[in-house]
Design goal:
TIM Barrel; 23% strand
């Protein structure tokens, strides 16, 4: 494997609280050295004006394979990931069939290794067929490589089943990720409020999310399983988690770009690219999510990359599927939402996208320490560009940020010491 010397960049490594203009030498798939005068290499990369960071990690993506390969495959999703600067991703289990047994887990791992772009890790289903009735074989799936468990797309509505899931996951000390949505309140098309009433669309109240978070926190109070709230979206949800953390509960959470930048006002045009689950909330909810990032209540950033076919998204708003794609523009959107307004510094942003997600799913990633896997992202913070969904390598085009002018972009993605993507 050719060695790579990255010169003249500013290294940002939150795992070591390290920010300095030094060089990085990659050899045999590992970080060989970080410093000055590191000698020669087979390839020299000039990173002047750029940040050199650990490879970005996304713990919440949907690659649709097996079952809906016309929307996305592990291959196309991995290509989208590295194009966005992500070196490691965690695939959700709501495929067809779902990832609810060890065979499906092995399939995702093998495909990711065969494609050899990003590191692809599977998240196993909590319950069989994601029906919320009986536990899937979590132990066997974990043994075969599942790094987390979730029924994402739906929450586990039965409190008894959820309690058993927490107890079982605790045995392996593996994180249980919950799509927090109380099912009896989840039959709407957008956030329940003034805009939904004006548009004549059924709404999903904020309480749907908050009730399930509150229930799970109570269930987990004595169990103490690693528990992670996916795609948080409401102000009171943030407050519930903030309070739980003060009480010492084992809870983490994530937020997605759209819940930091968009509100339910965006749905006024009935554009289904703004339809997602959880739905876009109010400006007050957006402010609370941003505040949660600032004060550390929200632990990491995750895209919830959810591809859909154009003909599916062209249905009436109420009947169109939820979800948007985001891997290829997420970094720029996080910069726009959090760094440009001065809410957090670059070091904090990179921590939320590297060290923190690695810690949540227990990946030996997210660092530039010597001897670590050579997963590296080079970011040009001054690179201005227009988001163009037609230029995406993802198979799908359901992106509400198409045409946005943004600043900051990954210009090179290195996985295992090999350059997997670079901006032309």
């Amino acid at each position: 494997m050719p060695s790579i010397l990255i010169q003249n960049g500013t290294v940002l490594d939150p795992s070591q609280v390290f920010e300095r203009r030094v060089d990085v030498l990659l050899r045999d798939g590992k970080i060989a050295a970080v410093g000055k005068n590191l000698g020669k290499a087979d390839r020299v990369v000039d990173a002047a004006g750029c940040y050199v960071t650990p490879g970005l990690i996304d713990v919440h993506v949907h690659f649709r394979e097996p079952g809906d390969e016309e929307e996305e495959t592990i291959a196309s999703g991995s290509a989208a990931a590295v194009a966005g600067g992500f070196t490691s991703i965690v695939c959700m289990p709501n495929t067809k069939p779902p990832l609810d047994n060890e065979g499906q887990i092995e399939f995702v791992l093998r495909e990711g290794q065969r494609i050899n772009l990003a590191n692809v890790y599977p998240c196993g289903a909590i319950t069989r067929a994601r029906e919320g009735k009986e536990l899937a074989e979590m132990g066997l799936m974990h043994q075969r490589g599942a790094v987390a468990f979730s029924d994402d797309g739906v929450g586990v509505g039965d409190a008894s089943v959820m309690r058993k899931a927490l107890q079982y996951a605790k045995m392996f000390d593996v994180v249980l990720m919950q799509h927090c949505e109380e099912p009896t309140l989840a039959n709407g098309a957008m956030h329940s409020g003034l805009v939904s009433t004006t548009l004549g669309l059924p709404g999903v109240p904020a309480e749907a999310e908050q009730l399930m978070i509150a229930r799970d926190l109570l269930l987990n109070r004595t169990i103490a399983c690693p528990y992670h709230v996916q795609h948080i979206s409401t102000a009171w949800s943030v407050e519930l988690i903030r309070s739980a953390k003060k009480d010492g509960l084992r809870v983490t959470c994530e937020v997605s770009p759209h819940h930091l930048l968009l509100t339910d006002e965006a749905c006024r045009g009935y554009d289904t690219n703004f339809k997602m689950n959880p739905p876009l909330r109010t400006a007050a909810d957006v402010r609370a999510c941003v505040e949660g990032v600032i004060d550390g209540t929200i632990d990491c950033l995750a895209t919830d990359h959810a591809p859909h076919l154009a003909e599916e998204k062209e249905l009436e708003f109420q009947y169109a599927p939820n979800g948007i794609i985001g891997l290829e523009c997420a970094l720029s959107l996080y910069i726009k939402a959090l760094v440009e307004p001065g809410h957090i510094p670059w070091m904090k942003l990179i921590e939320l996208m590297t060290a923190k997600p690695a810690e949540i799913v227990k990946l030996n990633k997210g660092t530039l320490k010597e001897g670590a896997d050579a997963d590296v992202t080079i970011i040009d913070p001054q690179r201005s560009w227009k988001i163009d969904k037609e230029a995406f390598v993802s198979k799908s085009r359901n992106c509400p940020f198409d045409g946005w002018e943004v600043k900051g972009r990954a210009v090179m993605t290195i996985v295992g010491g090999e350059v997997k993507w670079e901006l032309a």
